[in-house]
Design brief:
mainly alpha; elongated
Length: 155
């Protein structure tokens, strides 16, 4: 048997609360282990110190005088939250936000004309094209300048 197990069970051993088999194992261990014997002797000295203390029984009506003076404990945060009007307010706010989002979503982009939307779509397409074909814009720009300057025209 290991000392760790014996030390954890010494109080029960001292008070005679163990079954016979375990009590016999601990007694055998105590014969061979000086450290565990010293621990048992310390428990016995402590018991001898406490034994003369007067054992007082609490009055039967003690709890009746203590209970009304106890402050109620706060419950968990979610029980307190559910007991307050906050859940109803939170639900109302969520429904209001959902309704506003749905209304705005059905109206389309706010304050933008269809030309602005098309220009925005064109810009997005140009960004994608520039990313996948970096020289495409330069070639288009060169063709535009060539057309403005009259390069390539016959005179």
């Amino acid at each position: 048997m290991r000392c760790e197990h014996v030390v954890n069970r010494l109080t029960e051993y001292q008070l005679g609360m163990l079954d016979e088999a375990e009590s016999a194992e601990i007694a055998a261990h105590l014969e061979t282990c000086a450290d565990c014997r010293a621990e048992l002797q310390a428990l016995e000295r402590l018991d001898a110190l406490v034994a003369p203390a007067e054992q007082v029984k609490a009055p039967d009506d003690l709890w009746d005088g203590v209970e009304p003076r106890l402050r109620p404990r706060r419950g968990s945060w979610w029980r307190i939250w559910l007991a307050s009007p906050r859940p109803a307010l939170a639900l109302a706010a969520a429904m209001l936000l959902a309704a506003a989002g749905l209304w705005l979503g059905l109206r389309g982009p706010v304050g933008r004309s269809s030309a602005e939307v098309l220009a925005s779509d064109y810009q997005q397409q140009q960004i994608v094209a520039q990313w996948s074909q970096p020289l495409a814009d330069d070639a288009a720009l060169g063709m535009m300048f060539a057309g403005l300057n009259g390069v390539g025209e016959e005179r």
